[in-house]
Design brief:
alpha+beta; three-stranded antiparallel beta sheet
């Protein structure tokens, strides 16, 4: 929550935001033990950040994309 407060009010530099968001996503992938994970941040229907990690297909080792749809 503190990080989101700092993010909202601009107390952290833009590059620091990206590093922290990537770390959060990587930690979530490990914590939930999932083969792939993706996330996005939108500002009024415009993507300002998006990232996908892992494999969308484990058999072929196809890397996850931000456009992948998960079930």
């Amino acid at each position: 929550i503190i990080y989101l407060f700092c993010l909202f009010f601009g107390f952290i530099s833009h590059s620091a935001h990206l590093i922290k968001l990537n770390q959060i996503l990587e930690q979530a992938k490990e914590e939930f033990n999932t083969p792939a994970i993706s996330a996005a941040i939108l500002d009024d229907e415009t993507f300002v950040w998006q990232k996908a990690l892992g494999f969308s297909n484990l058999e072929t080792e196809l890397l996850a994309q931000v456009t992948d749809v998960y079930r």
